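Progress against Task 2.4 (sequence-to-structure conversion) is shown through the following example record, which the project officer requested during the mid-term review.
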Amino acid sequence: MKKLLIAFIGLLPFLTYAQSSKATVRPFFDKKTIGEIRITLPAENWSDALDSMRLYGEGLMSGSASIDGMEYAGVGVRFRGNNSYQMGLKRNPLQIKLNHTNTDLQHQGYSSVKLSSALRDPSMVREVLFHEIAGKYMPSPQANYVKLFINNEYVGVFINLESLDEQFNKTHYGSSENPFFKAGVDYKQPAPQGCKQNIDGNLEYEDNLDCYRSNFEMQSDRGWSDLQELTRILNNDPKNIERVLDVDNTLWMLALNNVMVNLNSYTGNRSINYYLYKDNNGHFQPVHWDLNLSFGSFKNTGVGSDLDIKDLQRLDPMLHFDNPYKPLISQLLKDPLYKKIYLSHIRQIIDENFANGAYEKRAQELQGLIVVPFNEDKYKTYSLDDFKNSLRETIGKRSKIPGIVELMSKRVKFLKDHPELTALPSSVSDVTVQGRGKFENQRLNTFHISAKADRFPQRLMLFYRFEGQSDFTYMNMSEEASSDLPSGVKVFSCLVEAKSADDTLEYYILAENAGTVQFTPSNYTSKPYKIKLSDLNK
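Structure tokens generated for the chain above:
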């Protein structure tokens, strides 16, 4: 009996581990449930204290936090946001710095929590929906919902946004120590004498490095000269822009802004609310931020007065095409291929998310998830009726925030019929990589890739990299002579030299005809084709 008891006691640690390993830990950015954050602050009138701290500096108030039941002491809390912050309100955007006093403190790898109050978004879905759609095509922060309590008082349902920080850059770009900037300055000071005034983050070139400090916030230890070089090449030497900028991700950002009428961005009046991170290959990578005013909630393009609902529905996909004060658009779209790629991205975003009604279904799902905690929020800006009607009706007599479906249903039709978007792309088919013949003894040391395209393709371009590399290289594929193909159909091929017998090649194809381009596979940004040389030699 004694031996059995000792044996059982010896098993206790393993039984405890087995039980704890089965416990469900809610992922911080879970989309199907609502999280819960409870903050304890030492000030009884905590909102007044946070207002005061914001007014006189950027300090943080020390306190404690509970995230889905996990307790964290010594965190820092402050009101965040620029135009979205309003003095005197408890329901303000909030930052919780978990590693405020303990630099190692984090929750599931996240050391900072940023909560959005969804200002001027009666639907409460703009940010989450935009980030979900954007994330299909380029790196984009995760977003979901949490219920916020401060000193045991329910403050409301908030949008939980993944911070654009070292962790984000390391996850998406493999590093976090390189130059990193936010476009737009929260506490803006007048630009020094001799600098261009009121240009914000539009990436115009300046001779004086200090001019950039009035328009960008540096999030890294260095990089002003890198940012200046980006603007120099963009404005004065755009044929070499691929040396310093990820052009395709930039075109995706611009296309997403345009389709979803996100004018509180580079595409709009002030050229703000995006980040730039310089990856290990020397390319600046753009990332969206602050999307509560997307889907037409902010209405100014920087030209003329605010747009009305009809103007928003008919926003030109070529907005700023010839605007020298928006060089990220005008300089890139001067290049015929970049213009075709940009328009192709617009067409893909529409087809995959809007023309099929997927966005409306997703918006309804998101609202269904949060309707109860939204209604229980005594500090909410909009009524429950406004919340329910906000997908299909304009809300607010003065602010006139468009219903998302009201805006996008007619916008989709406008874009589908737009002359810049009606050209039919070449469809790529029969993509093959030649393997070793059944009775051949010599092993292959090259990837021989071929593909067929219709609608009179002018060229096929192969973008490729070996697994483990972060950058794609491209080459033009060669047209193969053939007399038995239908009219307008051509076959192209190319060879890529392997570096070793264990190489894995990742690749995708761009087909260009006179009117437009198309990528194959369509989800090339996340799932390019992949083939192992060893498989070809079997």
